[in-house]
Amino acid sequence: MHQAPVVSAPSAAPSSAFAGDSWGGLAAMLVALPSAIAFGVTIYLPLGSSLAAQGALAGLLGSTVLGMVAPLLGGCPRLVTAPCAPAAAMLSASAISFVQQGMAPETVLLLLGVISLLAGLIQIALGLVGIGRLIRFIPYPVVCGYLSGVGLVIIGGQIPKFLGVTAGGGLLEALAHPDHWVWQAAAVGAAVVLAMTLSP
Fold first, then answer.
1. How confident is the model at residue 95, as a pLDDT?
2. Separation between Cα atoms, residue 161 and residue 184, nearest integer Å
3. Are 94 and 111 in contact (CB under 8 A)?
4. Between vectors from CA 44 to CA 41 and to CA 48, what angle results, nearest 5°?
5. What does each C-alpha distance from 80 to 77, 117, 133 come to in angstroms?
6. What are phi and psi of 48, to 5 degrees?
7. Least confident of 20-34, 69-83, 122-136, 165-179
8. Cα(150)–Cα(102) distance, integer angstroms
9. 31 vs 35, 38, 52, 84, 99, CA distance in Å?
10. Tens-place pLDDT, residues 83-140
11. HEC profile for the chain?
12. Residue ranges per domain, the chain?
């Protein structure tokens, strides 16, 4: 019996893959760089206002190194890397605690570096052991619900900014007071959404 050969589907053209990677890299840069600067300043600010600029530089360098190393060592073709807000909050809290204990800024920076290295080594060890496989035991609806909830929280937090509402309050308060909306901010936000939708 003759069996027809199995023809695999053609992969994406290199040009289209390059275009997708380029747009993805641009979007990641627009998100990662401001976050990295803000997190760096947040961590360094407890050491003194004169070190805030060094914190911004440290955030930029860290984000750059992360973007260069992650594609080389990542085990996933669609790996997403970005500055981590919880880690920045923990390091900032540690810096505040060390400063309150009377430590010199140089000592605090050294301790923060050691903490970061230890945290990275622990994550590497967990990856080598295969702890990530435990995600298989979490039901898929739970993961989808969690991620959907995070997305809704982000959207709800951004709508007041989209409408230009700068006063305190949440989503419901912003929607309940149309007189506080700023049409210029809404126009800029709509243009950004349109550009993101129409871009390849």
1. 93
2. 11
3. yes
4. 110
5. 9, 20, 18
6. 135, 145
7. 69-83
8. 39
9. 7, 11, 20, 12, 30
10. 888 888 899 999 999 999 999 999 999 999 999 999 989 988 998 888 878 888 888 8
11. CCCCCCCCCCCCCHHHHHHHHHHHHHHHHHHHHHHHHHHHHHHHHHHCHHHHHHHHHHHHHHHHHHHHHHHHHCCCCCCCCCCCHHHHHHHHHHHHHHHHCCCCHHHHHHHHHHHHHHHHHHHHHHHHHCHHHHHHHCCHHHHHHHHHHHHHHHHHHHHHHHCCCCCCCCHHHHHHCHHHCCHHHHHHHHHHHHHHHHCC
12. 23-86, 104-137, 138-200
Tracing tokens 């993805």 back to the chain, one arrives at 24
